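Chapter review: from sequence to fold.
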Amino acid sequence: MKRISRICLFALCILMGARFFMVPSAHATQTEAGVVHIIPVEGTIDNGNWMFIQRAYNEAIAANARALIFEVNTYGGFVDPAISIKDLILHSPVPTYTFVNTRALSAGALIALAGEHLIMASGATMGAAEAQILGERADEKTMSMWVAQLSGTAEIRGRDGEVAAAMADIYTVIEGVSTEGELLTLTPLEAVDLGMADYIFDSYFELMNHFDLGNLFEVHSRTTQEYIIGFLSNPFVSALLLIIGIAGLAIEIFTAGSFGVFGVAGVLGFVLFFIGNFMAGNLGAGAILLFGAGIMLIAVEIFVTPGFGVVGIGGILAVLASVIMAAPTPSQGMSMLAISLVVSIIIIIITLKNRKTRKIWDKLALSHTEKGYTSDEGKFYEFDGKEGKAITILRPAGTAEIDGRRVDVVTSGEFIQAGSDVKVILVEGARVVVAAKNPSRE
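The token string follows.
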């Protein structure tokens, strides 16, 4: 119990202290007024990228920037951070220029359309902006919202909203421009001809000269913290961390008696999940405390209470609720949680049924020997065929007393209540398999 308490306390300290040692500096850039600030929009459009752009934008505004140039080079990313970046550009109090130096695809197209002036470099492309989920076209509700975002943003800047819609919707047909079944992707010349781009320049130096912005500029860059935040808060990474967390803790519940590698992995999986989403601004201290309380309740269930009841169920519900609170939206949290639960259950079932995998678990489990207690030391063949009594509930693992000795045992899958008579039916090295001597009949 002391060991799990220390682990839980350590996890909570990491979560509560994350905002202090991972938050990027928010100080204003010390540059003279009138400088043009260049903010790269590159790589995956995720929460880390959004936090960087927001920070750079705030620093530029605080430094009385003359203008903002958003240099776009991205294959796209996630819808929510893309919309947040678009809104920030639209509401800028200083002139904004979006410069597509290579590509503005998918979510990048929305960001490019948000600038007061849209400039493309020779050879650049813009479009192919269909909203997708796991590589497939998103549902109609999501598609309708996303197409409206693109067309509405284009119209605000005096551009053709229908052309913007054709970038995202294969069913938007414009004679001589787009055909049904294909997403629209524009070259610089096509974009200028259609009024979607203003000029073709090959560098932001040409852009600055053309608009008479002077020759003073500052280029912002992402910090290591922002890259870490983007990685940990990525929905796919978050789902993977949830699978590790759920599967790890479930294994500890089903193999009660010692806290092993899988339990530690489970706690750390949840810790990293919450760190990423906390630093991305998706949750507050309430969800972290709820998660901590849930872990403590599960620990009490494993090490203190005899059997799995209200305490353990309450702990599991608290952890699941905290996961939903940590997601950007409740619906996304429930979807991510549902997928993680299904995958975790499949992993647990397959692993419990696989003898080789169980042996790997046994090797990874933390073991020790105390006075009057024999752990997995490997010489248990003397117990083969003998009878004893379950000291703890076997679900399917636990502790039994055989020949006056406390022994770690496991059943073939069935649960046996504490105090029940058991018989050893198989010994494999350090693995002692028991069955109920007088199984109950219904």
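Two observations follow directly from the output. Residues 235-363 form one domain. Residues 330-353 form the longest helix (24 residues).
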